Amino acid sequence: MSWMENTSVLFDETGTEEAAPVSGVETWAIVLDQCQLALTCIGYVANKVTFITLVKNGHMFSPAICLLLKHQALLDSWVSAMGTILLLQPPLWKTGRYGFDLVVCYVWHSQAIYWATIYMSVWNLVAIAVERYIAVCHPFKHNDFQGTPVRVSIASMYGASVIILSPSYMQVRFKDNMCISEYLIPGKLGEDFFYGYSILCLFTLYLLPALAFMFLYGRIVMSLRRHKKTSQSGTSKALKTVQVTITKTAFVVTLVFMVTIGFDAWSYTLGYTGVTNYEFGTPVQKIGVFFAVCNSVINPFVYLLLMPAFRDSLAKTFCCRTPPTGSGSNSATMTQPTDNNCV
């Protein structure tokens, strides 16, 4: 799915890097691309740091949420890395080798892989919401969600992304040894096909996840309010504190998704269905791409701000110190009772 069409304005049409603004390209677009480039680099480093932290000291979280958070960091680092390459590369570059250029055109220049990774990142957030729902609303079933069910859900994301994003490979055409931005399906048939495909993308990439988030987090909030005044032991109170902290973090990450991905998803769909004009290089398109990049950059900083357990894990991983044993976030997570493994 190539509504991003993120060919870099840092190069002219021949692929030559320009120090001055490229002819016909507004200065604001170049500045926005440079800001986006900085964001993708920061996002890659931040997500890699998050992944390493969870690999080395993920025992502070339950296996299910730890695996999903690691997978989220891995996907977001891939999105950031590919976003950086897309910004730096010459538009629709080629090597002159027919076979290689043919593969690069349909696999890379179509941006199908890029958007498939974003698709998996979004549905990984849904899996995190499901894990939080089970932990809070059905704590006795939470042990059943560990291990195999989580791995199956992750594997299904990859399978679904291949199926849903397969039409994206047809949004470019390899013709006369050149990759051009043109539908592989010609004429009215191609226009009608991608009209329907744009609606499918809106539903699978945004509307369905958004509905799932609203339902799951709505039930979680109701459950937390209902049990807020329940009398608990000291250990259970600590567990509940960790539970609320992780749930609040997941909720904030979800809000970030709904704002950042939602803007471009709606703009793309309204443009392809003829409601509005959606063209590459316009302010709406460029801002939408910028927001989409932000979705994969912000998550590690949300973890850092809202999760004491993650801050302790980060310090232990990179500062060679042991977090205080009296920390409620750590001690609670390490001493889960068998009847309420809900962290």
Automatic annotation (TrEMBL):
Keyword Transmembrane helix among UniProt keywords: yes
Record-annotated G-protein coupled receptors family 1 profile domain positions: 46-303
Bilayer-crossing regions: 73-92, 112-134, 155-174, 194-217, 238-263, 287-306
Region (Disordered): 324-343
Subcellular location: Membrane
GO cellular component entries: membrane
One function term, GO molecular function aspect: G protein-coupled receptor activity
SUPFAM superfamilies, per the entry: Family A G protein-coupled receptor-like
Family note: Belongs to the G-protein coupled receptor 1 family.
Name assigned to this protein: G-protein coupled receptors family 1 profile domain-containing protein
